[in-house]
């Protein structure tokens, strides 16, 4: 048990100074009512009724907000501000992403692959005249390096010259293989170009598979099937999957920068859906005309929708259009409304702003 120290001094009538080993304080008052304040325990008021044993006391305590406590509160305040700024930043990014998605949907038709000039591909000269006994540029360079090889003194001393010669001979073999690969690639390109120009339909499908012209549309979840019986006409079935593409929520920022998410109005949703479908159709036609010597493409856009007769989801054709190369090349793709642009072509489409697409019949391929 430790020793303690306590001493009380009267410094004025009714006022005393109290000194202890761990604190110092002062008290004042009269009989029945006193007020005291202490450096360790804080302030206290005591009231009593003399000779009854009845009293009442209340403590005011003292400020225990230490420097560590204040630093913790400051850190919490800073973290709260950082969280608020991060929330605002995430909200802005979400709105930017939403707006970019809408912009992409409306502008799919504006970009297209560069045309392939199959006549030019067929007329490209071979990398070297293999049938005349010529060797390729890579093998020629490797042979020249081998013929000009002169071992260094160190290579002769340590007998590394044979190893270096062997490496150079292997380089010649590798270079010859590279030349042969380039020659085979040239032969293949000429063969494919010749068959495309001649209208070989099997080669058409080979080219479509290799070039994969609609790969960026696949990012939207779209799927495609290609059919052809005439070398000048291609038929394409296009799965829309608009439910996976068109946003169902409209995102915006409030005046304070917070994220606001509201259900997309039906009219707006259907309008974006129509633009998406029609924009994809124009893009498909542009890419196919750029890749193959076609005159006409038939495109049938299908979507999974509710059949009101059976009450079940069913894949339905919602747009069927015949696009000829001459007509589509007249369009200014930067300025057109892709949905209105369907009027330039023979097509079947039933669309209402309040109800969206309805099922239509496919056009017969002529």
Could you write a compact summary of the structure shown?
A hairpin with a 2-residue loop joins strand 3 (24-30) and strand 4 (33-38). By secondary structure, the chain is α+β, with helices and mostly antiparallel strands. The chain has helices spanning 67-106, 118-122, 137-147, 153-157, 161-197, 201-211, 215-218, 266-291, 325-328, and strands spanning 6-12, 15-20, 24-30, 33-38, 42-49, 54-61, 223-230, 233-239, 249-253, 259-263, 296-307, 312-324, 346-352, 356-358.
Verbal overview:
The strands form 3 sheets. A 6-stranded antiparallel beta sheet has the order 1-2-3-4-5-6, with no helix packed on it. A 6-stranded mixed beta sheet has the order 7-8-11-12-13-14. A two-stranded antiparallel ribbon has the order 9-10. It is α+β, with helices and mostly antiparallel strands. The relative contact order is 0.08. The chain has 3 domains: 56 residues, no CATH class; 169 residues, no CATH class; 78 residues. The chain is flat. α3 runs antiparallel to α5.
Notable traits:
366 residues, single chain, 39% helix, six-stranded mixed sheet
What's the SSE blueprint?
Blueprint: E1 6-12, E2 15-20, E3 24-30, E4 33-38, E5 42-49, E6 54-61, H1 67-106, H2 118-122, H3 137-147, H4 153-157, H5 161-197, H6 201-211, H7 215-218, E7 223-230, E8 233-239, E9 249-253, E10 259-263, H8 266-291, E11 296-307, E12 312-324, H9 325-328, E13 346-352, E14 356-358
Parallel strand pairs: 8-11
Antiparallel strand pairs: 1-2, 2-3, 3-4, 4-5, 5-6, 7-8, 9-10, 11-12, 12-13, 13-14
Helix pairs in contact: 3-5
